[in-house]
Write a structure and sequence with these properties.
The structure is a homodimer.
Chain A (H helix, E strand, L loop, with lengths): L6 E2 L2 H13 L4 E6 L5 H13 L2 E6 L19 H9 L5 E3 L3 H4 L6 E5 L7 H4 L3 H16 L3 E5 L3 H13 L5 E5 L19 H6 L2 H14 L4 H15 L4 E8 L14 E9 L2 E8 L1
Helix pairs in contact in A: 6-7, 9-10
Chain lengths: ~280, ~280
């Protein structure tokens, strides 16, 4: 008989459970997800478990972070599969809020991040980080975790959430988990399910291209030349359009000087057919 | 020898104190202020005390809610007087954060309220409620109160903060205290200190005008006629310009239908010389 994981979808019930854990002095970790869970998400649950007695996984496909022309309605959903996977990684609770409870009639408060949110994804998805910041703030105040865990796969999101937590003095720590990759290097993503078999074979090019760029920059090549080579590799593999391949300060995401001694990151976004892939690596 | 009240101005120290109170199971009330305290503020401290074992008063003149042309630099400041008044009303702690700790270099997250923030003050102070919402969210996450108390004097602010607390699921209750008034009806306000003796004699007209409008509306007069009479009374008393005199839904602040059965509020803002006065009353 398979283990099951308790699922709560009303805020009052969530607060009773997390309140009991807090009263008992148990540390709570939160892993925010949009479901369609893969090994990347599960690795974040295990990471939360390392420092927290209790781990909550939220599953909420957040309409506020999708533009009208984006893939909200076709975003992969697999509730039964998600619950089964979570039962096997010792998740204590799934927080699966109703959309009407997250955004009730009259909802009228947005969090608008600048700083780390400037450029990159925001140039192509202008409302995205406002939606992400608002829902993450809500998830944090709903669950009240000591720690929330985000994957480095969505690196700019990680930086924006860290910035929000610091700016709004939210009483939790943000921990980053490394990007989980397929054997051929492709970053795991729920959106990989959109790829055709031919596209799937080509998809790892994005990782190989930015990984090569990072190595070239470490080897002394000017960042502009390294990123242009990456764009060229993506073009040749059939990516079109290439939204960006950029080198940024790894903490602030400000454009990085070529002479800087601070850690840098290479970030890229590009399309294969109707699927947009993003990836990033440390320089 | 006068009693004194402990003053903390670093977040780490604040969290040690409020954490100890929470661990002891003591309810915490917060009264956010910009200092220059008067009887109105003190009445909010007493109100917090009714349901909270511990009362924190924050004093922070928030630059983010002043436009460049507004009175941030000349806003009244009287730290010694404030501390003396608070020592007499059994305040447990003054939270007086450093500006550099509230808005450190790289601060880049704003809360943008719509809904209750639309119109009225926002027509004249477009950045105001963004600044208010952001600093109140920070004060709430810093102090972690069970209850925060706001005066009805700043009625739209009260509604915007309530809306933010609900929208962002902040785990506290907002309690409203009635407007404290001078013997002649003038709403107490730190900005009354700007008035010349002549202006001070005329100032209560704003309260008398909106109170008469509310009575006329209760008596069946159309709101548009009642508010026009109030504007006329203000003009005759020398208020210029009159920013607004409006009737709104008391909860949502949406424009109120004349046939509505819902509670309504009359709100006004008008200038006497260089001083802007606001006031409001229930219909």
């Amino acid at each position: 008989m398979a283990a099951t994981v308790p699922v709560i979808n009303r805020l009052a019930g969530l607060r009773v459970q997390t309140g009991a854990w807090r009263t008992a002095g148990e540390r709570i970790g939160l892993v925010p997800t949009m479901g369609a869970l893969h090994e990347g998400h599960l690795s974040l649950v295990r990471l939360a478990r390392q420092t927290c007695r209790r781990v909550v996984v939220s599953i909420f496909v957040n309409p506020a972070q999708f533009a009208p022309n984006e893939d909200f309605t076709r975003y992969p959903r697999d509730e039964a599969g998600d619950f089964a996977k979570l039962a096997r990684v010792a998740c204590d609770l799934v927080w699966s809020p109703l959309a009407a409870e997250m955004y009730p009639d009259g909802f009228a408060t947005r969090i608008v991040p600048a700083g780390a949110a400037a450029g990159l994804e925001s140039d192509f998805r202008p409302q995205f980080f406002g939606g992400v910041a608002t829902v993450c703030c809500k998830l944090f105040t709903q669950v009240g975790p000591d720690v929330a865990v985000f994957g480095e796969k969505d690196y700019q999101q990680l930086c924006v959430v860290r910035q929000m937590v610091r700016d709004l003095d939210l009483p939790l720590d943000i921990i980053a988990g490394p990007t989980a990759r397929e054997a051929d290097g492709l970053a795991m993503s729920s959106r990989n399910a959109y790829l055709t078999p031919d596209q799937r074979r080509v998809a790892p090019t994005i990782y190989r291209a930015i990984d090569a760029a990072a190595a070239d920059i470490r080897g002394g090549q000017p960042p502009a030349r390294a990123t242009e080579a990456a764009r060229q590799a993506l073009r040749e593999a059939g990516f079109d359009p290439i939204d960006y391949v950029e080198v940024r300060d790894a903490q602030t995401l400000a454009p990085a000087d070529s002479g800087t001694q601070r850690p840098r990151r290479v970030l890229a976004a590009a399309w294969l057919g109707k699927t947009r892939l993003i990836d990033n690596v440390a320089v």
